[in-house]
């Protein structure tokens, strides 16, 4: 058996090198930027996290909401922090708003609904037109099946207009107008969209309060209006939340042509191919199509959006921000 000799000096030098990152190659060393940040933080001059300022008040649908009382201040603070640190979701909402706000805003206006209700849509679906909750609510406005049908939407396995952006927005307008006729207060209307009109009305009476923000409610509903207000703050000043987007980062509206259909389409894949697109693209533009065929036994009129070839290959450098406050350029 060979005798193994261990050089104590060599071992000591090796251990010292491993324990001292500055003595090994750069792949093992702490990045210089990270070192600088660590030293910067240690000096107490700055922190890597920030807290958007809670305003003393905020305007919603023409009404000033006082946020100076401690409970309101802290509720608002919670939602502002949530939008600040759910980075990918907040950034995607800002990007998608550039595509969907130009569609939704005119519909709200023509139906006499305050523009601020687009922020209710934001928190309902995170601006995902195909969003579906565990309870079965669907689309940008998160209608349940029964409510969608009550407000004029076709909802079945083949066609689900809760996913139709324009039609669902008009249905939401009808719902909101009905709620306003009951409450004569847009803040209560917003709360009722989450809790239901009957519940808000009964709790206002039971708790002897006039302002729905003063109600003791389950946590989801208690947070609801504050989330809407925080979304408005985010869209009014993304930079205050640490989000600095370029115009080229935003999602532009996709140009399209329209085809009116009054008969069944047995094979939507074949139909899409005849239009120079795929089934996936057809459903992306028309998410209310739920199957691979369009059954139209009753002869209804449907309008299908077909993206133009130029629109499918948009140039981000040509994107125009819907709201200049969203970008830093």
Describe this structure in words.
The structure is a single chain. The chain has 13 helices and 4 strands. A hairpin with a 2-residue loop joins β1 (57-60) and β2 (63-66). The termini are far apart. α3 (70-85) packs across α10. The protein has helices spanning 8-19, 32-42, 70-85, 87-110, 118-125, 145-150, 165-183, 186-195, 197-206, 219-236, 268-274, 279-285, 309-312; strands at 57-60, 63-66, 256-261, 302-307. The protein is mainly α.
Descriptive labels:
two-stranded antiparallel sheet, 3 domains, Lysozyme, mainly alpha, 329 residues
- Report the count of strand segments: 4
Count of alpha and pi helical runs: 13
Question: Which whole number gives the mean pLDDT?
Answer: 88
**Gap between N and C termini:** 74 Å
Strand order of the largest sheet: 1-2
**Order of SSEs:** HHEEHHHHHHHHEHHEH
> Which secondary-structure class do the elements indicate?
mainly alpha
The parts where pLDDT drops under 50 for at least 5 residues are: 1-46
Largest sheet: 2 strands, antiparallel
The 3D shape can be described as globular
Question: In total, how many domains does the architecture comprise?
Answer: 3
Helix content: 40-55%
CATH architecture of the largest domain: Orthogonal Bundle
**Proportion of residues in extended strands:** 5-15%
Q: If you compute it from the alpha carbons, what radius of gyration comes out, rounded to the nearest whole angstrom?
A: 27 Å
Task: Assign the CATH topology of the largest domain.
Answer: Lysozyme
- CATH structural class of the largest domain: Mainly Alpha
């Amino acid at each position: 058996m060979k005798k193994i000799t261990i050089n104590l000096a060599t071992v000591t030098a090796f251990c010292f090198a491993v324990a001292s990152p500055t003595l090994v190659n750069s792949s093992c060393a702490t990045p210089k930027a990270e070192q600088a940040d660590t030293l910067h933080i240690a000096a107490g001059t700055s922190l890597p996290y920030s807290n958007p300022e809670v305003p003393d008040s905020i305007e919603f649908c023409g009404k000033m909401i006082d946020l100076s009382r401690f409970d309101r201040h802290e509720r608002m603070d919670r939602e502002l922090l949530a939008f600040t640190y759910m980075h990918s979701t907040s950034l995607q909402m800002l990007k998608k708003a550039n595509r969907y706000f130009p569609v939704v805003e005119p519909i709200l206006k023509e139906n006499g609904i305050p523009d601020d209700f687009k922020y209710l849509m934001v928190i309902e679906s995170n601006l995902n037109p195909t969003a579906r909750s565990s309870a079965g609510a669907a689309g940008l406005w998160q209608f349940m099946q029964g409510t969608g049908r009550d407000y004029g939407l076709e909802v079945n396995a083949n066609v689900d207009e809760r996913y139709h952006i324009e039609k669902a927005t008009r249905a939401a307008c009808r719902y909101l107008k009905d709620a306003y006729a009951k409450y004569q207060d847009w803040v209560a209307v917003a709360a009722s969209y989450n809790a239901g009109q009957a519940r808000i009305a009964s709790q206002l009476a039971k708790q002897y309060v006039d302002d729905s923000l003063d109600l003791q409610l389950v946590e989801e509903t208690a947070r609801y209006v504050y989330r809407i207000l925080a979304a408005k703050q985010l869209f009014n000043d993304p930079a205050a939340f640490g989000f600095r987007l370029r115009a080229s980062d935003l999602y532009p509206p996709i140009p399209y042509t329209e085809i009116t259909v009054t008969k069944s389409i047995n094979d939507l894949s074949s139909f899409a191919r005849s239009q120079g697109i795929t089934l996936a693209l057809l459903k992306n533009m028309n998410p209310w199509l739920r199957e691979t065929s369009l059954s139209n036994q009753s002869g209804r009129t449907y309008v299908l959006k077909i993206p133009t070839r130029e629109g499918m290959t948009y140039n981000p450098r040509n994107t125009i921000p819907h709201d200049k406050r969203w970008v830093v350029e």
